[in-house]
Amino acid sequence: MFEQVKTKFHMVFKRKEKNETNQAAKPAKKRSNKLRNSIIAVLVAAIAGGGYFGYTKLFGSKASASQQTAIAVKGNITKSIEGSGTVEAINQYEVTSLVTGEILTDHFEEGQLINKGDLMYTIDTTELNNSIQKAQASLEKSQLSYEQSADSLNHLTVRAGVSGVITTLYVKNGDDIQSGGKVADIVNTDTMCLKIKFNAADAQNIYAGQSATVNLENSFTTLYGEVKSVSSGSLVNEDGVPVTNVEISVPNPGSIVPDDRATAVVGSYACNAPGTFAYYDEETVTAKTSGEVTGLTYKEGDAIKSGATLIRISSDSASNSARQSALSVQDAQLALQNLYDQMEDYNITAPISGKVIQKNAKAGENLDKSNSNATAMAIIADMSTLVFEISVDELDIKSISVGQEVQITADAIEGETFTGYVDNISIVGTAQNGVTSYPVKVVINDGEATGLIPGMNVNAQIVIDSRENVLTVPLSAISRGNQVTVKSSGKTEDETEVQQGRPGQGGAPDGMPQGTDGEMPQLPEGGLPEQAQGEDGAGRQRPSDGSAQGSSGSSAARGGQNANTKSSVPDGFRTVTVEVGLSDDNNVEIISGLNEGDIVLLPDKTSSTTTTQQQ
Fold this sequence. Notes:
- By secondary structure, the protein is of the alpha+beta class.
- Strands 2, 3, 5, 22, 24, 25, 26, 27, 28, 29, 32 and 33 form a 12-stranded antiparallel β-sheet that branches. A 6-stranded antiparallel barrel has the order 10-14-12-11-15-17.
- Helix 1 runs antiparallel to helix 2 (30-59) and helix 3 (126-154) packs antiparallel against helix 5 (316-342).
- The longest helix is centred in the N-terminal third of the chain and has 30 residues, at 30-59.
- The radius of gyration is 64 Å and the shape is elongated.
- It starts with a helix and ends with a helix.
């Protein structure tokens, strides 16, 4: 159609130029040519207006039938984080056995409420008792070995057993001495012991502690002593008389030496025969362990008190042996105590208070190594508090805090909404596909009273922000730069232009001359107006992109509207920039830029396909 209009314009202009030339040569025909030109102008205006109207409707903005719109209305906006999880009891315990043996008794039933510490099972302890007896024997052996090692360690210090004078030293510092080796001889010269025989009949009347009169055989000196011991038996002497041995201690005036002879009278009983003197206290000190002699400070002839340290013996082997023996005793004690502690494991008690939700073992069954820990004997759950976990994206985790209220729904219980709160936010996240999620623990209010039970799947919604009674539009209405396409009030520019160019509406299309007295307008000098003219003077063709734009003069002729904007903004709409606020998955809050009731344009998924088909 546009090509036909252009051809007609060209023919009219050629004819007009020819007529004007003829007017100069033929003045008589001037009036008739003027009339003819006016008729042609009317025809051109009609054809141009009809062509422009058809082109605009065909290649202009999208057809109104394909436009999707929404109304800016007041409403509420809630921003929330959603997730799903599985309900669990806040505390659930699987009861297992740490020991083996026959289950002798059980004291509960499945579904029963049970308190912490209640007896649940008793298991046969025969095997444990045998182990305890073996451990006790092992401990006793270790203790004996330790005592021997401890004695050896104590014998590293050699002490004097009696008070007296060191008559002989067998060692010096630095010597190696073996166990049983002689160290020194010590004698007590202050007191002598008279060993003498009394008739057996007389001896029965003598007892320890009695005073005795002693007469030295060679010097006829009389000394006084004390009976120390009386033998319980008797012997027959050379004369065939029964005699009994009696020992009398006598202070040594300094002149008595061993083997000196003397007689004694105890009470009214005289001895059967003279006796001989010996040192009362006499000791040969020996080593009880092997090692190197150290710490000797005495020499022969020195006096020494009973219990005084004579020498020290250095022996690494004795020290190590004592240490090992001590450790063996400790190990045996721990092993025995461990068995005693295991006795408690044969009486299985409830670790928590709650409901027995599962019972897998009963009296009469045997627990062996293969199943004692593999399968729970029973499961106890604290149903007073129910919890579940949801995963929250790293972008939203900062919006959640402990104590926040949570709305909960469950597919298993339709039509009901439960409440809970955020109990814990884990700082240990899980990364997947470049996104990290964090576990959030939610506690369900009212616990078991909600009707929820462990294993049910629930959905959670955590409200992090909300707005009430605010102006909203669909989220899809907002384009880049917070721009919204809103319907203009009144007629669009295109509709106004077309109406002005229609026949019978009192005017011609933009750029065509208007008559001032009701007469038909005449074409201006030089042919068609700029809007209908190409660069070569011919009628303008439709651009290849489907717009109505030709030369640079079209913007002014169309009221300053840019052709590119006209291609993206439909007729009757305009683009405005708005200030947005809170948004959810569907709507967004409009703070400024729109009014309630404004009609906004929504994206049309079929617009590009429709335009292509029209072209």
